[in-house]
Every structure is written in C-alpha cells, then in structure tokens.
Write a structure and sequence with these properties.
Blueprint (H helix, E strand, L loop, with lengths): L3 E6 L4 H12 L4 E8 L7 E4 L2 E7 L12 E4 L3 H13 L3 E4 L28 E3 L3 H16 L2 E10 L6 H15 L31 H14 L5 E8 L6 E9 L5 H10 L3 E3 L11 H4 L5 E8 L6 E8 L3 H14 L1
Parallel strand pairs: 1-2, 1-5, 2-4, 5-6, 6-7, 8-9, 11-12
Antiparallel strand pairs: 3-4, 8-10, 10-13, 12-13
Helix pairs in contact: 1-8, 3-5, 3-6, 3-8
Length: 333
C-alpha cells in the first residue's frame, strides 16, 4: 500500500485518540496525518509516531484542495451529518463512527470480518456500526455461514467508556464519593452507576425498547444481509471502565452442537476462543482491554430448544467497537 493522506476528525476525544493509536499500532501507511476537532480543542498538540501534530479547527473549508484521501470521523452524529458530505465531496472517503449514516440505504455499514465486500459500494461515506453490534456479528458470522441464524436474544453489559470520557469520569467520581461518604451526583447516566447496573442505554422509544437496543436489531439485519433475523436486545450499563460483554442466545436452521460451534469459532477471523469450563477459562472485560479481537466463551447447547445455542462474548468497545474497526475498513480501502 502506498502512503495515504489521512485525517482524524474528533481527534481529541476518547475514540479519536484510539483511532490515532490504532493507526500507529497497525502500521497503517500514512504519508501525512491531519487532526481536526472543534474550536475548543483547536491548537492542542497530539503525537503521531513520535511527532507533534497540531489539532486544526473543523470548518466547511478545512478539506478544500488538501488531498486528504481517508477521513476517520468520531465527532458525533450532528457533526457528521453536517460535515461528512462536504468532506466526501472534497475527495476523501469518510469512515464515520456515529449513528448518523448507519441505516442510510446508500451507505455501507461494515464489519470487515463479516461483510468486507460492502466497502466497494460506498459513495464517499462508510458507516462504522454500533459497538455492541460489531462484536456480536463478528461472533455470529461463522455460525450463520454454517447454519442460518433465525433468532437472537442478547443481553449486553456495557462499560462506561461507551458513554465517552464523561462516563468514565462519572464512575470514578461516584466511586470516590461513596468511599468518602460524599453525595452522589448523576449527570451523564440516568441513575447512579457506581456499584450499580442501569438497564437503559440511550433514550426509550415508543415500543419501550431503547435506541441502543433497536440499533442492535436493525444494524444486525443490514450487516448480515438478512431482514428476517428476529432479534431482541436488552442493553445494560455496568460499572466497568472498558470492554462490553454480551450474553447471546441464538436459534439456527439446523442444529449447531457445542463441539461444532467451538470448531467454527476457533477458525474464524477476529475471534479468540476462551472456553474451558474445567479450568474456569472464559473471557472477561479486563482480558479484552486494549485488544483488537472479540473473545468468545461459555458456549453451550440450549437445554430446551433443539437448535438453540448460548455463548458469551467480550470485546474492547473503544477498539473493535470503534477505532480498530474503522481502521480495518481503511485498510480495505
């Protein structure tokens, strides 16, 4: 690959910084790097491969005649809606981490281990799926290829970093305040998150599911190219700093035994199988932190449904759930 001129938009945020670090860690061929953020963050200096790079203000003219080829966006949905078409028109391919374009029929929604071929259909913008969806479809892909998945019931256990730096800070602050006997303040989350779990991520919709839960329903169908997959989700915020976990139950056209599932998982790209009940081997968020893969364990056949299978999967939501998935898409480009 020849060197590319790459921009990171939202470079000073939690995911933006992970995008920068992932470009370094994966040795992405960067000829020139540009960092963009809001006017509040413009002027800061960030490191890339040991060099200082000044953060520039994102404006509607910022990409004009700059030769930028790939733009990794992690600046929120409103910013993406405003600037992605402008950046694409200027000649860059936008890989957007927000929810702004995911369900647009003209925009590919891509997980490289699942539907890399969709990249070629882009018209200047490619969407990065929701973090909880990404790790689930990575795990589902080898099973679905062997026997079509008909039904999914998933419960998520999502870390506070999924809510950005403010979510991380709120967990730390509440924990310290509880230990020191000080009042608890909840601002980012609807209820206390320290020493607690919250069965709400994003806002409730008219059907009583949350927006996060419906993202998993709709995005899974689009990524898997199967509008008939019956998915239901319950998304829960837990007091974990980094790494999302999911309990997944599926029903398939033909039975997938535990042994066959282990074989499929062990051969699939992007999956690390950790499953040995005799030694207590199964994945947890602290083991997936700062890793690019999705970890799978607790695989077991359902006790009541002949074609039912249960498994547990864990992944770093800031990496595979965001930054590294976006960089993998850039690698395909």
């Amino acid at each position: 690959m020849s060197g590319k001129v790459v921009a990171v938009v939202g470079a000073t945020g939690a995911v933006g910084r992970e995008m920068i670090r992932t470009l370094e860690r994966r040795n992405f061929p960067v000829k020139q790097i540009r960092f963009f953020a809001s006017s509040r963050s413009a002027g800061q200096h960030l490191k890339f491969n040991g060099d200082d790079v000044v953060v520039e203000e994102l404006t509607e003219k910022a990409f004009d005649n700059q030769g930028i080829e790939i733009a990794l966006f992690s600046a929120g949905g409103d910013t993406s809606k405003q600037f992605s078409p402008i950046v694409a028109k200027a000649g860059a391919v936008v890989i957007d981490n927000s929810s702004a374009w995911r369900m647009n029929p003209e925009v590919p929604l891509v997980v490289p281990e699942v539907n890399p071929e969709d990249v070629k259909f882009h018209k200047g913008i490619i969407a990065n799926p929701n973090c909880s969806t990404i790790q689930m479809v990575v795990a589902l892909k080898p099973l679905h290829d062997y026997s079509r998945v008909l039904r999914i019931i998933v419960s998520t256990y999502q870390s506070v970093s999924g809510a950005g730096q403010r979510g991380i800070d709120e967990l730390w602050d509440q924990t310290k305040n509880i230990i020191n006997g000080k009042p608890i303040v909840s601002a980012k989350f609807p209820k206390q998150i320290a020493f607690n779990v919250i069965p709400q991520i994003d806002v409730f919709l008219e059907n009583h599911f949350t927006k996060e839960e419906m993202k998993m329903v709709n995005e899974t169908r689009k990524i898997m190219h199967d509008e008939h997959i019956a998915t239901t989700a319950t998304c829960v915020r837990v007091p974990v700093l980094r790494g999302h976990s999911e309990s997944v139950y599926i029903e398939t056209e033909k039975k997938i035994s535990r042994d066959k599932a282990l074989e499929l998982f062990s051969k699939a790209p992007g999956i690390v199988l950790m499953d040995d009940p005799s030694t207590g081997k199964y994945p947890v968020p602290t083991e997936s932190a700062d890793q690019f893969d999705t970890y799978v364990g607790r695989v077991r056949e359902d006790l009541n449904i002949e074609n039912g299978l249960n498994f547990w999967c864990v992944s770093d939501n800031l990496l595979k759930g965001a930054a590294s998935n976006a960089v993998q898409i850039a690698e395909i480009l």
